[in-house]
Amino acid sequence: MEKYPRIAIVHGGTSSEHNASTLNASYVEQSLTRRGYKTFLVDYNFSMIERLSAAAPDLVWVCVQGKGHGDGTVQSVLDFMKLNYTGSGALGAHIINDKILCKELFAAAGVRTPAWQTLSYAAYKAGNFDFSGLGYPVVAKAPSEGASYGIELILSHKDISKIEKVFAYEDPILIEKYIPGHAVTAGLLVRNGKLNVFPVVGIRKDREEDRYEIIKADNPGAVVRFDFTPDVNADIEKSARKIFDITRSRDYARVDFMVSMDDGLPYALEINAVPGLHPYSGSDLPSFFPLGALEAGIEYDDLLEIIVTTAAARSVTCGDIRNLYV
Predict the structure, then answer these.
(1) Fold of 6-87+312-325
(2) At what angle do helices 99-109 and 230-246 cross, to 10 degrees?
């Protein structure tokens, strides 16, 4: 395929994932430049539309996430501008960014996931919620946050006040039964029209004292490849594929699981449409998604070019916002 010569990389914004977004953008820029693409960075702000309209890039790499950013907002703008872009479309991005909606879809599709309930701030203040119903510990999560923002582990009734921190991000929030175990991920990549699932990688917890530690998603500290039993591996792959499908995902994604230290089963937690892209530098470990790609035999620059090729092959049918500037 002839390379698209100009790729805009949209990053930044004001969400909690600003720093991660900008870091991802720098990795993407370096990789695509090595492959001969002409790239330029575009800040996600009110001047983004005008800059993209003037530059008319051949493709946009979406590096933003979070509420009002990569939750379908920027995707809808790019659709209207008739610009191709990487990753999930507006609908898929909206679904993926809502943890509560995703949990409902998981349950409806028969995907194993930790027990959960939603909690409004009004119900919390009125004391109209039985935290013991799920059984401690539980995890309180802001539905649209990522990068370990808006998440608190509630070990017992004494920790309930921590929920105030989560409500600072959103209302309502997700209350999820905590599954002690190994935090693992399955990367997914569309290549030549076929959905591929990478080998499972994650953070192993072998010590009893690690059972109730909240794992940060793209912490490159103790990341390893997991060799579970064939049944567990097949369960993770099947669930990851189903989640990719029911959330209307596109191009690539990462699905996070906890493999229970109690029953040995994988429990789907969430899906990430714009996973960390920290590459291997020789002195540290990459983010989960590119590590899974390496385990599948796909080098970093090849991985990103596959994503570009898949996105660039799509036709664009929406209106063009550039007409507003005529």
Answers:
(1) Rossmann fold (3.40.50)
(2) 120
CATH 3.30.470.20, the chain: domain bounds: 181-297
Task: Judge whether 5 and 258 are in contact, CB under 8 Å.
Answer: no
Residue range 209-236, pLDDT digits in tens: 445 444 444 444 455 677 788 999 999 9
Q: Which amino acid belongs to residue 209?
A: E
**The sheet that has 173-177: what strands, in order across it?**
116-119, 173-177, 138-141, 151-154
Mind listing the pLDDT tens digit for each residue in 132-158? 789 999 999 999 987 678 899 999 889
Amino acid symbol at 193: G
Q: Give the burial string for 204-213 (b: 16+ CB within 10 Å, else e).
A: bbeeeebeee
Contact assessment for residue 190 and residue 251, using Cβ atoms and an 8 Å cutoff = yes
Residue 55's contacts (CB-CB under 8 Å, 6 or more residues apart) are 6, 8, 40, 42
Q: Dump pLDDT digits (tens) for 117-130.
A: 999 999 999 988 88
Residues 6 or more apart whose Cβ sits within 8 Å of residue 254: 185, 186, 187, 188, 271, 272, 275, 288, 289, 292
Q: Respond yes or no on whether the N-terminal peptide bond of residue 143 is cis (omega within 30° of 0).
A: no
Which fold is adopted by the domain 115-177?
Dna Ligase; domain 1 (3.30.1490)
**Mean predicted confidence (pLDDT) in 95-113:** 97
- What does the DSSP assignment read for 69-124? TTTTHHHHHHHHTT--BSS--HHHHHHHT-HHHHHHHHHHHT-----EEEE-HHHH
Closest CA to 10 of 55, 34, 35: 55
Contact 311, 59 (CB under 8 A): yes
